Amino acid sequence: MTRTSRIPGFYKVTVPERRAMVSDATGADVGDLARSLDGGGLDTETADKFVENVLGTYAMPYGVALNVRVNGKDFVVPMVVEEPSVVAAASNAARMVRAGGGFTAEIDDPLMISQIQLVHVPDVARATEAILGAREEILERADAAVPGLVARGGGARDLEVRTLDHDMIVVHVVVDCRDAMGANLVNSVAEGVADRLAELAKGEVGLRILSNLSDRRCVRVSCRVPADVLATDTLPGDRVIDGIVNASRFAELDPYRAATHNKGIMNGVDAVVIATGNDWRAIEAGAHAYAARDGRYAPLATWRKDGDALVGRIAMPMALGTVGGTLRVHRAARLSLRMLGVSSAGELAAIAASVGLASNLAAVRALATDGIQRGHMALHARSVALAAGARPEHVDRVAAMIVEARDITVDAARRAMATLEASASAAAE
Ligand code: MEV
Hints:
Elements: H1 15-26, H2 30-37, H3 44-50, E1 62-70, E2 73-80, H4 86-99, E3 104-107, E4 111-119, H5 124-133, H6 135-145, H7 147-151, E5 155-165, E6 168-176, H8 183-201, E7 204-210, E8 218-226, H9 227-230, H10 237-253, H11 255-275, H12 280-291, E9 301-306, E10 309-317, H13 331-340, H14 345-368, H15 372-387, H16 395-404, H17 410-428
Antiparallel strand pairs: 1-2, 3-8, 4-6, 4-7, 5-6, 8-10, 9-10
Helix pairs in contact: 2-13, 4-14, 6-8, 10-11, 10-14, 11-12, 11-14, 15-16, 16-17
The chain binds (R)-mevalonate.
């Protein structure tokens, strides 16, 4: 079937209706959606096998970003996030990007770095020479530590030595992890080669662990957004482009702004990473280390004007897996991967970065035009209405009333509920 991520009117219908629409759009089975998502996708018994001292589970909202098209393919993208407006904003921005042909992604091979620290090295130059001279032997030992990966077409690819101090070096074994995130594989490699490396260096083994600065496993995504789709009620498209380019330059020039700019990107990236059962701390660590790779913290995504269009680019490490990992036992994470129908971990990485770029576009467009609070507050008001105990059928009305009153508080929501109930009972009399 042809998958589509364009589902008009999606946000207006009920949850069961949305599940039916997603099933039509992606081929996911409605029963499967219910079984995988009801109860948050994880029962206490299974959770007790994941981590220690379990008391229960902790649920988060599971939504989908619509309109996402990456390298000519449509994806309905699962997002797990607690912040109102993140899913809507990513979907809106993806619709604008779609008008310019969607996202174009380039993905590196899935190469992870295994770090072996060697200490008390008497002569770092000699040690480096000895290790590089034994390259083939070390790569063979590395492969022997991960035979399953080698059978799947992955394995050790390269060896590098970096001097860190007069008596300390670090050896990098670069490992192709195929569709696994690779942390366990790369750690096994580190432990498998460390003793021989120490022997060659005449030093001692220090740490043996992966690097989360997975800069050999980057994804680069670009998009081209026509000016007219960026226009707001009050500003023409070219003025909006101007504002977005200035927002980008602000982040390029100021680390204080770059941190917030990147936070907006990670709103989208993390939500996809969590929904697919991946390690979001690893992605966060890699993203921020990469952002600071030139010695100055920089934005992961930038925006420029090109003719009458806005062009956006993002580049960041993206160590994601579609196989292995304990979270893949999670019913909802497994559903996410089925719903996306990705062919590889690289394709998943391209989708996560595209949603990151969409989230960034939505944020900088809002900031450069109406300001973030207008849209944010409208959605925040729904959470407040829920927190005040509004009945599901009243949530939107109560939210609209407290936004109009410019008093988005639980007390105001309770007053709005009382007004609604009073007018409902007056109408019934
Ligand atoms: C809020 O979660 C994210 C933003 O602050 C991002 C940004 O400022 O670009 C709106």
